[in-house]
Amino acid sequence: MRRFQDRAALVYVTDGEDANNTTSEIDTKSAKQNHTDNLNDDEENSNNILSKTKLKAMFRPTVAALKQRSLNPELVEAHDITAPDPDFLIYLKGIPGTVPVPRHWGRKRKYLQGKRGVEKPPFALPDFIVKTGICDVRDATAEDDAKMSVKQKNRARVSGKGAGVDVDYRTLYEAFFQHQTKPESLTDFGDLYYEGREYETARSSNFRPGFMSERLREALGMANEYSPPPWLINMQ
């Protein structure tokens, strides 16, 4: 009985089954090889395809090339090449009356960060208003208000009677329409305020490079405006 069970457990394989097994093994090997080849081809294709950033960098002009083909090369900056249309950007910057973008747009430091902690001077009236004597009148009214009691202040507030200004209207008219002057700290069109601008001396704007006044030429010992300065002779 045990021998019969052992014989039944054995599996007999014919020649046809051997051929089928070998062909199936070959087919699986070839399929695996084709799959690996396809993966390699996909990797090569993915390596050949460039990203959008690489394509933009490839077609982006250099600063030198952009300066050569633009009519205003002095307006070209290093970050202008990253624009969608650099040539059109330089054309817009070269139009008369164009206001440039402030320099602090690309800085990590906040605008006017150095002004923190600086005491702002109190507002001062212009000279043409001070000459009318309005300051003395205001000081006198402030002294009168200080002498009033709380009841008098409340009564004046309820009645609504304002104190008249003891300044001649003709004086005010002449001050505002004849003697009025423009402030010196006004900026021009397209001009931007920057830190420390109010500390610059107003006289520095009157000087020009390469131009010497008669007083300076006399101090340097120069005979006329065509004679060389003394430091030029020492440099030679």
How many helical elements?
Answer: 11
Radius of gyration: 45 Å
Which regions contain 5 or more consecutive residues with pLDDT less than 50?
8-20
SSE pattern, N- to C-terminal? HHHHHHHHHHH
**Helix content range:** 40-55%
| Largest sheet properties | none
- Separation of termini? 127 Å
Shape: flat
Strand content: under 5%
Oligomer: single chain
| Secondary structure category | mainly alpha
Q: What integer is the average pLDDT?
A: 75
Write down how many β-strands occur, each being a DSSP E stretch of 2 or more residues.
0
Structural notes for this entry:
- It contains eleven helices and no strands.
- The model is unreliable at 8-20 (pLDDT under 50).
- The protein is mainly alpha-helical and 236 residues long.
- The protein has helices at 2-9, 15-48, 52-59, 63-68, 86-93, 127-130, 134-147, 150-159, 169-177, 214-220, 230-235.
- The longest helix is centred in the N-terminal third of the chain and has 34 residues, at 15-48.
- The chain is flat and about 110 Å long.
- The N and C termini lie far apart (127 Å).
Based on the model shown, name its key terms:
48% helix, flat, 236 residues, 11 helices, mainly alpha
What is this structure's SSE topology?
Layout (H helix, E strand, L loop, with lengths): L1 H8 L5 H34 L3 H8 L3 H6 L17 H8 L33 H4 L3 H14 L2 H10 L9 H9 L36 H7 L9 H6 L1
Brief digest:
48% of the residues lie in helices and 0% in strands. By secondary structure, the protein is mainly alpha-helical.
